[in-house]
C-alpha cells in the first residue's frame, strides 16, 4: 500500500528531438511503424572517418526554436536539449504563468555523456591555429557536461534544484530517478532528460576507440542486436526531455498524469565487461521492481538496452531471465533504437518517451532491421504489436559499466 | 591614425559575438542603459573585449571587461592611450 505522504512523480510532458522525428509526434509515428532512418554519416568533416552509419538529426534548424543569444554560446547537444525542453513544456502546458510566482518550485536535471564536442573542437582549432586570444569565452561553458541544465534553467527561469548526472549512458535513467527524488523532497516539477550530439569529427574520433561501435557501412545491417549478425551499435544524435511533476501539483493545475515513475535502481560492473553486466543488470531490474513494488509478471513490455554486441546481448537476455524467471521468455521485448541509433544518455530517455507513448497507444513498437532472434526472448520485430500495457520496464547500460532499470506505470488514459 | 570605436561597431560586436540584436540608436538615446539591460553578461563582454584586442593587436585596459554600460566601455576604449594611438 502506498503511503499518502509519499510524493509521487508523474510524467506530464514529453519533448523529443530524434533522428526519426524532430518532434514527439513525428518520433512516435516513425517509432510505432518501425521505420528505420539509419543512414550514411553526412555531417561536415566526417566523411573520411571509419564510422559510416549513424542516426543523424536532419532538418533541425535551432534558429527557428531558440534565440540567437543562446545559440552562440551553446553546442548542438544543448540546442537539442533546449528545443526538446520547449516541446516538453508545451506538451505539459507548463508556462511561465504557472511558475512565475514560485520559480524555485521547478528544477532541471540532465544527463550527459560527452558534452559539447563540436563547439569544443572549433575553439580548440582557434587555440592551436591562431592562438589563445582567439578562443571565445563561451568555450568555458559550452562544452561542459552541465551546459544543457544551466541553459534550460536560465532560459526558462527555473530556479529550483538543478543537477547534472554524469553516469554513462544509463545516466538518462538515473537523471529521471534523481528528478523523482528531488520531487519527493519538495520540488513541484523538474524538466529532465538528455540529448547528445556525438556526430562531429572530434566527437566521432573519441568514439573510434570503442570496440563496440559498428563499423558497418550498410544501414540495414549495421545495428542488429539479439541476432547472430550483431556487429556493434550505431550512435545517434538527439534525445528527449520530459516534464515530471509531483502528482498533486500536476492535478492541481489540471495536468494529465501520463505515466508514473514507479521504480529505479542502478549498478556498476566495469567498462565493457559485458558478461559481468548480466549480474549488474539483473540486480538493477530486481531493485527497480522492488522500488516499484512490482511483480515480474506485471511487466507488460521491456525496452531493452540492445547493445548489438553478442556478449552484451547474451548478458542482457540472461539478466532478464535471472530477474524475471520464466516470464522473461514471454514478456514482449522491443528496441526501437535499432531504427535510429543509440543517442548515448539520450537513448534511455527516448525509450522512456516511447514507453509512455506505447502505454497510451496500447501498442508495442517493433525493433527495426532485426530478424531471426538468437536468444530466448520474445523480441517484437517487423510490425507493431497491439497489447494492453500498464507497466513498462526500461533498461540501459553504458559502455563504461553503468547499468540501470526503470519501471513506469501507465497514467490516466487520454480523454480522446 | 586612431581607432575610435562607435556605438554602431559595438552593436555589431554584440551581434556577432553574443547573438544580441541591439539598436545603436537606443544605446545613444539612453546613455545610462546597462549591458545587462541588453542581455549582455560578463562572458559576453569578455568576448567583445577579446574580439577588439584581436582587431587592435594589443590588450585593452583591464577595466574594460568590468564596465557596466556601453557609454563607459566606449569612453574607456576610446581614451586609452594604447589603443587610440595604434591600429
UniProtKB/TrEMBL annotation, chain A:
- Domain Ketosynthase family 3 (KS3) residues, every copy: 6-410
Which PROSITE patterns does UniProt cross-reference here?
Answer: KS3_2
Xref: Pfam families: ketoacyl-synt, Ketoacyl-synt_C
Looking up CDD domains in the UniProt record yields: CLF
Chain ranges passing through the membrane: none
Q: Which keywords belong to this entry? A: Acyltransferase, Transferase
- What family does the database annotate? Belongs to the thiolase-like superfamily. Beta-ketoacyl-ACP synthases family.
**What protein name is recorded for this chain?**
Polyketide beta-ketoacyl synthase 2
State the species of origin.
Answer: Streptomyces albospinus
TrEMBL record, chain B:
InterPro entries on file: ACP-like_sf, PP-bd_ACP, Ppantetheine_attach_site
PROSITE patterns assigned: CARRIER, PHOSPHOPANTETHEINE
Q: Which residues form the Carrier domain?
A: 4-85
**Source domain of life:** Bacteria
What Pfam families does its record include? PP-binding
The cross-references to Gene3D superfamilies, in alphabetical order and at most eight, read: ACP-like
Q: Which residues form a coiled coil?
A: none
Q: Which SUPFAM superfamilies match?
A: ACP-like (SSF47336)
Keyword terms: Phosphopantetheine, Phosphoprotein
What name appears for this protein in its UniProt entry? Acyl carrier protein
What is the originating organism of this protein? Streptomyces albospinus
Amino acid at each position: 500500500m502506498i503511503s499518502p505522504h509519499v510524493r509521487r512523480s508523474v510524467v506530464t510532458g514529453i519533448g523529443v528531438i530524434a533522428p526519426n522525428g524532430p518532434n514527439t509526434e513525428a518520433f512516435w509515428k516513425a517509432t510505432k511503424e518501425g521505420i528505420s532512418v539509419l543512414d550514411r554519416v553526412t555531417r561536415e568533416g566526417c566523411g573520411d572517418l571509419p564510422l559510416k552509419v549513424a542516426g543523424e538529426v536532419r532538418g533541425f534548424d535551432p534558429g527557428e526554436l531558440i534565440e540567437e543569444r543562446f545559440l552562440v554560446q551553446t553546442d548542438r547537444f544543448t540546442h537539442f536539449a533546449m528545443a526538446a525542453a520547449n516541446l516538453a513544456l508545451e506538451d505539459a502546458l507548463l508556462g511561465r504563468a504557472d511558475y512565475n510566482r514560485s520559480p524555485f518550485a521547478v528544477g532541471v536535471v540532465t544527463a550527459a555523456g560527452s558534452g559539447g564536442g563540436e563547439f569544443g573542437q572549433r575553439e580548440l582549432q582557434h587555440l592551436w591555429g591562431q592562438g589563445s586570444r582567439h578562443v571565445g569565452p563561451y568555450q568555458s561553458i559550452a562544452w561542459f557536461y552541465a551546459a544543457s541544465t544551466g541553459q534550460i534553467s536560465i532560459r526558462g527561469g527555473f530556479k529550483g534544484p538543478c543537477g547534472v548526472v554524469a553516469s554513462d549512458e544509463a545516466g538518462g535513467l538515473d537523471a529521471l530517478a534523481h528528478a523523482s527524488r528531488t520531487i519527493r523532497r519538495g520540488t513541484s516539477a523538474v524538466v529532465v532528460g538528455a540529448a547528445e550530439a556525438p556526430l562531429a569529427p572530434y566527437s566521432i574520433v573519441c568514439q573510434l576507440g570503442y570496440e563496440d561501435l559498428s563499423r558497418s557501412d550498410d544501414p540495414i545491417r549495421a545495428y542488429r542486436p539479439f541476432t547472430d549478425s550483431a556487429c556493434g551499435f550505431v550512435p545517434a544524435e538527439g534525445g528527449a526531455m520530459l516534464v515530471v511533476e509531483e502528482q498533486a501539483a500536476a492535478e492541481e493545475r489540471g495536468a494529465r498524469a501520463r505515466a508514473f515513475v514507479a521504480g529505479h535502481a542502478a549498478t556498476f560492473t566495469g567498462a565493457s565487461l559485458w558478461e559481468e553486466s548480466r549480474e549488474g543488470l539483473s540486480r538493477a531490474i530486481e531493485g527497480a521492481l522492488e522500488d516499484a513494488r512490482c511483480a515480474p509478471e506485471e511487466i507488460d513490455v521491456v525496452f531493452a538496452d540492445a547493445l548489438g554486441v553478442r556478449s552484451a546481448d547474451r548478458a542482457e537476455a540472461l539478466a532478464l531471465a535471472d530477474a524475471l524467471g520464466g516470464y522473461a521468455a514471454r514478456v514482449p521485448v522491443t528496441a526501437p533504437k535499432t531504427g535510429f541509433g543509440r543517442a548515448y544518455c539520450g537513448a534511455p530517455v527516448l525509450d522512456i518517451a516511447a514507453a509512455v507513448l506505447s502505454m497510451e497507444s496500447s501498442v508495442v513498437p517493433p525493433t527495426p532491421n532485426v530478424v531471426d532472434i538468437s536468444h530466448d526472448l520474445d523480441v517484437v520485430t517487423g510490425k507493431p504489436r497491439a497489447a494492453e500495457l500498464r507497466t513498462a520496464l526500461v533498461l540501459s547500460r553504458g559502455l563504461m559499466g553503468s547499468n540501470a532499470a526503470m519501471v513506469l506505470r501507465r497514467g490516466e488514459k487520454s480523454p480522446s | 591614425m586612431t581607432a575610435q570605436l562607435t556605438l554602431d561597431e559595438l552593436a555589431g560586436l554584440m551581434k556577432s559575438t553574443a547573438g544580441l540584436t541591439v539598436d545603436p540608436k537606443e544605446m545613444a538615446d539612453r546613455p545610462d542603459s546597462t549591458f545587462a539591460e541588453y542581455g549582455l553578461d560578463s562572458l559576453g563582454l569578455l568576448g567583445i573585449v577579446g574580439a577588439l584586442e584581436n582587431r587592435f593587436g594589443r590588450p585593452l585596459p583591464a577595466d574594460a571587461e568590468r564596465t557596466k554600460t556601453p557609454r563607459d566601455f566606449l569612453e574607456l576604449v576610446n581614451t586609452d592611450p594604447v589603443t587610440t594611438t595604434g591600429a
